[in-house]
Each structure stands twice: as structure tokens, then as C-alpha cells.
């Protein structure tokens, strides 16, 4: 219950961040995905099931509010990534900031590739993201994610008894 | 064990969610021809089922139509059978009417040819008991029918009235063993008396016996036998029958069998002579 609440809270925060990025910094909005960061954090902390469900919820919200006419692409992508990262977190030691940043980097690239692949499979018109853009997006996400995850971890450690 | 169950559950959940999302996306994507991929996939998957279902429905409808057709055919067959029965009855009635018309015409012709007064009568029953050969007519005293009145048919002599009531009369036909009529062999003028045979009720003999014809008389098979008028009952010259066989009888007389001219088994209308026998003598034309 508490985990679901905080996940929902984080998704709402992601909505606000995405909205703000879209309004104030339109172009860089494409280079960071706050929803992906929420999903990855949930997967790293809560495991594959939590990451999967968080991916579904965050993906649908992202699809509903910020994506194109077809709903479900981001949700499916984040569902798979949430599961994959959650599974990886269960098998490997991914508590360090570098490891998490690396996970975010890989996940960001995977997310972009997965969405584009799904779009091509379903014949959906999607703006292609070049290698440079993809790498930029992944790098920014990894940096921001690594930093953010550390802050959150610290904050949560303070809150926990 | 405790770790495998959540893992399996999460994999099932993953699979279910992935499928759900694929379906959701497919539902929104145009798969060409204006239909979504989900609709297209559903068409691909469901069309054979629909085809089968359609074929089943078509087959059922065909069976139902065939059943209806057979039922209608059965009803129509019943109607046609009923119609055929009606038409057969009608045809039979017409045929009967035609035959009756022919018989009545023959009777009328005979009546017009006879020089004496006659009354036409209908045969209402025959051979009430097996031991006697009789007929019952629908005319009696009120119609001018008298006792011993001769009864004729267009083909020959039938018999005589032996009992008469106000509106009915009974006729003893020549086939009765107790009947008798004075006759002549038309060709040789040999005289005799015809009567029915002495035989049981089951006998098939429908011939008359010509009695009291001398051994030397000239009688051969095929000779026509006519009434002589000597018995004071039957008018002279009416055809009784034709000689079928001539044999040597016991004693002085020949054994002669006569085939009657009257068709006793098919008599339906007859003429009854009304005037006394003394006054009539059949003209040559009637003979």
C-alpha cells in the first residue's frame, strides 16, 4: 500500500516534471524521460513485479498525456524494462550510484529502441531518434537518474526508522 | 520453492500484461483498409470460425428449408391425393351416369318398339336368399304392375312378377329353378319350356334348360330361342336366349342348354308390361 502510494506519488511528480520540461524547455524535454526514471527506481528497489506494474502505470500515464495517438507503446516498453531491470536487480548488486546510472543508461537506450521498434512493427508514424540523440538522451537520463536515485535513497533512509 | 512461485507469478503477469498491451496497441493501429490491427487479427482468427458458423447456419437453414419443403410437399401431396379421389369419384359418377344413360336409352328404344304399354322400373335388390333367383322392383300396383306381368330387358326376357305390392314388385327370373316360359326355337319352330337349372346356390351354372324338346327336333347350338306366347304370360316372339349345347337326354327329350340373353347379373332397369297377356303379340320388328 505504501509502495503503491509512493509509486503513484512519483508518477504524479513525473507528470509535473514532464509538463514543466515541455513548457519551459521544449527541446530538452525529449532528452529525459522522468517516467522512465520512476519505473527504473521502482524496479531497482522493489523487484521485477513492482517495476513491471510501475512501468504499466507510468507508461499509460505518459501515453495518455504526452505520447502520440496510440496508447500503450510506452506502457509496453516500460513494462518490459521494469521487468528486466527488476530481474537484473535481483541477480546483480545494483545498489551503487554507478551501477544504477549504468542501468538507466542502458534502459534509456533500450526504451527508445523498443518504442521505435514497436512503432515500426505496428506501422505507427514515430519520429526517428538518431544515434546521437539516443546517446544524449541516455546519458542525460543516466546522469539525472543516478543523481536522483541517490537523493531519493538518502531521503528514504532518513525517513525510515 | 518459495522463490520459484513469485518468479513464476511475475512471469505470468509479464506475459499477460505484454499480451494485453499488444492487443491494446493493435486495437488502435490502422491495419489497412480502415481497420485496426486488432480488428484485422480478430478477422484473421475469427473469420474461419465465422465461416464455419456461417456454414453451420446455412446448413441448418438448408435443412430447415428442406424440411419445410418436404412438409409443404407432403401437404400438397395430401391435397392432390384428396383431389384425385374427388376426381375419381366424379369420374366414376359420370361414367355411371353415362352407363345409366345408355341403359335407359336402350330401354326407351325397347319401350317405343313394343306395341303394348310398359312401365320402367328400377331393380332395387336381387337374390335376397340363395335358394331363389328373384329381383325386387321399385314399381308396384300403384304404377300399374300386375301379378304375372312379364319383365323385360333390352337384351331379352327377364322373368315374371310373382308378388306385387303398392309400390314394389318381386320378379321371378328365368334362372330360378321353379320358373318356366313357353318358347320356340326360332329357326325350326321346335317348342319347349325353359326354366332355371336344379342346382345349389353355389352353382356356377347360369344357363337355362330347354325342356320337352323331342329327340327328333331340329335344334343346334347357336339357335335363337324366343317366347311362344302359349303360356299366356310372355308375349310371343321375345328373345330368351341362344342354344349353347344340345345333348342326348334321358328318355324322349333332348338335353338342351340355353344361354340367356338377359344379363341377369347386371340388371338395373327393366320394363314391366302393364297390359294383359291375352292382348299382345310381339311384332316381327321387336323380335
Structure description:
The complex is a heterodimer of chains A (161) and B (287). Chain A has helices at 2-24, 34-46, 48-65, 73-91, 97-122, 131-159. By secondary structure, chain A is an all-alpha fold. Chain A has a single domain (2-159), classed as Orthogonal Bundle (Arp2/3 complex 21 kDa subunit ARPC3). By secondary structure, chain B is α+β, with helices and mostly antiparallel strands. Chain B folds into two domains: 20-113; 118-278, Thrombin, subunit H, CATH 2.40.10. In chain B, the strands form two sheets. A six-stranded antiparallel β-barrel of chain B has the order 1-2-5-4-3-12. Chain B has a six-stranded antiparallel β-barrel with strand order 6-7-8-11-10-9. Chain B starts with a helix and ends in a 14-residue tail after the last strand. Mean pLDDT of chain B is 81; it is low at 200-204. Chain A binds chain B through residues 47-49, 52, 56, 69-73, 75-76, 79-80, 83, 118, 122-124, and chain B through 6, 9-10, 13-14, 17-18, 21-22, 24-26, 28-31, 37.
Summarize the SSE layout with pairings.
The complex is a heterodimer of chains A (161) and B (287).
Chain A: H1 2-24, H2 34-46, H3 48-65, H4 73-91, H5 97-122, H6 131-159
Helix pairs in contact in A: 1-2, 1-3, 2-3, 2-4, 2-5, 3-4, 4-5, 5-6
Chain B: H1 4-28, H2 37-113, E1 118-126, E2 134-137, E3 150-153, E4 156-164, E5 169-173, E6 181-185, E7 191-195, E8 208-211, E9 224-227, E10 239-247, E11 255-260, E12 269-273
Antiparallel strand pairs in B: 1-2, 1-12, 2-5, 3-4, 3-12, 4-5, 6-7, 6-9, 7-8, 8-11, 9-10, 10-11
Helix pairs in contact in B: 1-2
Biggest sheet of chain B, open or closed, and with what strands and sense? 6 strands, antiparallel, barrel
How many structural units, i.e. domains of chain A? 1
The overall strand count of chain B is 12
Overall structural class of chain B, as computed from helix and strand content, comes to: alpha+beta
| CATH overall fold name of the largest domain in chain B | Thrombin, subunit H
> What number of structural domains do the residues of chain B give?
2
Report the CATH superfamily of the largest domain in chain B: Rod shape-determining protein MreC, domain 1
* Unreliable spans of chain A: none
Oligomer: heterodimer
Kindly provide the radius of gyration of chain B, computed on alpha-carbon positions and rounded to a whole number of angstroms.
46 Å
Q: Outline the biggest β-sheet of chain A.
A: none
Percent of residues in β-strands of chain B? 15-25%
Principal-axes geometry of chain A comes out as: globular
H/E element string of chain B? HHEEEEEEEEEEEE
Q: Ends of chain A: how far apart?
A: 18 Å
